[in-house]
Amino acid sequence: MDETVSYHFATVRQRRENRNEIKYHLTIRQQPKQSRMCGIGEKADRRPIDPPPIVQFQVMDPSLPPNDKTYLQNPYYFMYASLMAADLDEELHLLRDGKTRSTTGSVVSSLYHLKDIDNTDAGFFVFPDLSVRMEGSYRLKLSLFEIVGKEVFHCESIISNQFFVYSAKKFPGMEESTFLSRSFADQGLKIRIRKELRQRRKLVDNNTNEKEKRPRVSASVDKSHHHLYYPIREDTTPPTPSSSSYNMQHSIQFHTPNHSIIYPPPPSHERNDSMSFSTFHSPSQKK
């Protein structure tokens, strides 16, 4: 038999009448500083505004007790982020083509009931995945709304500080995550955390590359003399030839920058009456 599961929100008080008595206080706890311009395609490389904008939210309702914080459980509050010019009050919703939105990602945030850095309960709106498609200087207009029944009421708005959107070539890189961002991430909020400063990778000097590269040891074949060449370093001693590693038709030559040590091929293996194993003659011995 199927079971029906229902979810119940906390009981909150909403008002349609005399809403002008309610005071909403918005504080931008984390201002946007920079961003990298993203592409228009669905698979375009997208970097969010850094650091992610965070707005603290408080409600003062004279009809409720002074220390009442039931609004922190209200699921009907949300905040919308729109782009504004740095020196004008108009909102920039579309690009010049009149079709593509100027922002992409999550432009709406729900109300999050989180612990502040002083371990007190507070309400926050967070935008960890908001990107801009145009290069230049901008601001964010952050507007608070409340859904009451079938109506949506605008409560309050706040404008952020100016931030700059760079092209891909000029972007200096993402900064280290703030303590506030890390604190929210520890509480389960989905927000990107960077423990170290990430700067744009620059071209490495050729000398540095040469120092970092380790010399490669490889074997090459001289087809004209049928010799195998194994380059070695000056400070190493050539290995002693071993009958098991010798080829009857080749001689092994070890090269150093100043001289060469040549080991001739071993003689044919002959079986003597007095010896039951192959005899090897060194270069200094005579047959």
UniProtKB/TrEMBL annotation:
<dbReference type="GO" id="GO:0005634">
    <property type="term" value="C:nucleus"/>
</dbReference>
<feature type="region of interest" description="Disordered">
    <location>
        <begin position="202"/>
        <end position="221"/>
    </location>
</feature>
<dbReference type="InterPro" id="IPR021740">
    <property type="entry name" value="Velvet"/>
</dbReference>
<protein>
    <recommendedName>
        <fullName>Velvet domain-containing protein</fullName>
    </recommendedName>
</protein>
<dbReference type="Pfam" id="PF11754">
    <property type="entry name" value="Velvet"/>
</dbReference>
<keyword id="KW-0804">Transcription</keyword>
<keyword id="KW-0805">Transcription regulation</keyword>
<feature type="region of interest" description="Disordered">
    <location>
        <begin position="257"/>
        <end position="287"/>
    </location>
</feature>
<feature type="domain" description="Velvet">
    <location>
        <begin position="19"/>
        <end position="194"/>
    </location>
</feature>
<dbReference type="InterPro" id="IPR038491">
    <property type="entry name" value="Velvet_dom_sf"/>
</dbReference>
<feature type="compositionally biased region" description="Polar residues">
    <location>
        <begin position="274"/>
        <end position="287"/>
    </location>
</feature>
<keyword id="KW-0539">Nucleus</keyword>
<feature type="compositionally biased region" description="Basic and acidic residues">
    <location>
        <begin position="202"/>
        <end position="215"/>
    </location>
</feature>
<dbReference type="InterPro" id="IPR037525">
    <property type="entry name" value="Velvet_dom"/>
</dbReference>
